[in-house]
Structures are given as C-alpha cells and as structure tokens.
Amino acid sequence: MSGTDEAKRALDAWIAEVRAALKGLPPGDVDDIARELSSHAFERAGGAGADAVAMAGALEALGRPRELASLYLGERIAERVERNRSPWQVMRAVWRLAGMSADAAFVLAVSLAGYALALVFLLTALAKPFWPDRVGLWRLPAADGDLSVSLGRSLHPVGQELLGWWIVPLGLVLGSALAFLTWRFGLAGVRRLGRARAELNTPKG
Amino acid sequence: MNEAADSSGSIDRWETQLRKGGLSLAVLASLWGGRLYGLEILRRLESDAELLVSEGAIYPLLNRLRGEGLLESEWVEADAGHPRKYYALTLAGRARVKAMTGVWDGFARGLDGLLAPVRKEGGR
User: Fold this and answer.
1) Beta bridge partner(s), residue A140
2) What is the largest CA-CA distance in chain A?
3) Counting Cβ atoms within 10 Å, is residue A138 exposed (0-12), middle (13-18) or buried (19+)?
4) Does A75 touch chain B if contact means CB atoms closer than 8 Å?
5) Which domains, ranges and CATH numbers included, belong to chain B?
6) The complex's ipTM?
7) Which segments within B14-91 are labelled E, that is strand?
8) Contacts of B79 in chain A (CB under 8 A)
9) What pLDDT digit, counting tens, does each position of B20-29 carry?
C-alpha cells in the first residue's frame, strides 16, 4: 500500500469517527461538515501527493474527532436554545451538554437540585390549604435528640410547625424565584458551554 | 521564582481570554477584503493578528456566524483537485464588523488614556 493510500485511509477513518460523533444533526449538515473537514485536512497535508505522516499531522492539528464533534453539537444546542428559551428546552440542552463536559454535568446537577427545591416550595404552598395540619415547614425531633427541619408534608405529627399560613406566600415567592434563577443559571450555562471553545495559543517571542 | 511563574501564568490566561473575546471580530474582519476559505482565514489570523486558533475550532465558529446571518458560504471546485468552502460577509456581517470596530476603538481609546501614565513610568 502506498503512502498516499495510507493517508486516504487515515482520513476516511477519522471522518467516519466525526460522522458517528455528530449523530443527532441533520444528515445534510453532517455531510457538509465532513466535506469541509476533509477538504481542510487534504490541503493541510499537501494535497494529492499527501503521505501518511503529513496526513497524521493534519488530523492531529484538527483535533480528536469526538471533541471536534462536541464543538459542533454544542453550537447547535446553544443555537436551538436561543430560538426557544423555555425552561423545558433549556433543561434538555443542559442534559445533552452534560455528556460532553464535567462543567456541563455540574450545571445539570445544580439545575436538577434547584428545580427540585423550587417544586417542593411550590407544592407545599399549594397543598397547605388542603392539609393545613400536615403541610408546612416543620421542626422535627430527631432520634438522637438533635433537631431537623422538614419542608413539605410532615410524617411526624409531633413536629412543630414554624411558619403556619405564611408558608403559602413564602412558598409561592421562594419557589417561583428559585425556579427563575435555576432557569437563568441553566441558560447562562448553555450559552457559555455550548459556544465554540476556540482555543488560542499565544505566540511566544 | 514561583511568584514570577504564577504571574506569567496569570498574564497568559488573561491574554488568552482577551484574544478569545476578540476572535469573532477578527474572523469577521479577516473577510472584509473578500471571500476566504477556512484554512485561508486561519492563515490570515496568524499572519495579520498573531492569532493562532486551533484548527478544528474555527469551523464551528464559522458555522455559528453563518447561522447568525453574518456570513454566507459556497462550495467552489478548486484547481487544487478538491472543493473548498468559501465564506463571505453578508450585508449584516459588514454592518456588524463596522459596529464592533467602533466599540473596539472606543474601548481602546478609553484604555489608552488610563495606560498613558503606566507607559510613561515603564519607559523611564
């Protein structure tokens, strides 16, 4: 096998990996991306006479297929969120980005915790009128004598309620505020993490 | 010595952030004189602005700028034996470059005023 054939085989294998990692994008977009990256690598390696070593260098300069594909996917996810910023779409975007980086996984964890707590506040506020004696913010005697606080529906009738009916307006306000802040946090995360992370190398004199 | 290394690392990180912030403007400005394909844009950024961009990352950025309507692209069959995807500024892209240049110039002028005494002191 000639060096040129080896170069072509290396390029084809690299492009196949990029294509596989771009799963989820429209096929036409994947074809376009693959064609552009092939053209870049081909020219960077020296054109028609490129050998395997030159092609390996060109592909290394382009980056690892999965990482490169994640840049495209991140851009696409961020672009979709700019068109529809609903909390559901933002959470979907955060969920998809979470598989690409540890930072995005952290944003997902904080978002899930934020929405869960917001939901507890809101449900507590809404349920209070129906079960006034069992729903609220409770201080519960723990087994070891310490005190713990429980928000929501108390399973311990001996617990002491702390806020009474104030839990209704407070729960609605805090739950809504927490949900709003969690949404903004997720949106900022998608914008920051989804955008192309073009790394620049500063030339040293 | 560690302090000197830390200081150098901080400066490097700050410079990287600064260059990243100006990258969109640099890419758009590189197309002011006419259409270019990806590798040409990279070379222009390096030769004219000393911006070394990781090669793979330029394409998602170009994709985004095209999605925002600032660039248009077309495939051209080149004499080199393989097609090249050329990018050009749209009217909205040209307007954006002008606006960004104005902001950049204003920022630089303002900062120059603050930096004048530092330069004067440093020059002694």
Assistant:
1) A148
2) 84
3) buried
4) yes
5) 2-123 (1.10.10.10)
6) 0.82
7) 36-37, 52-53, 71-77, 83-89
8) none
9) 778 899 999 9
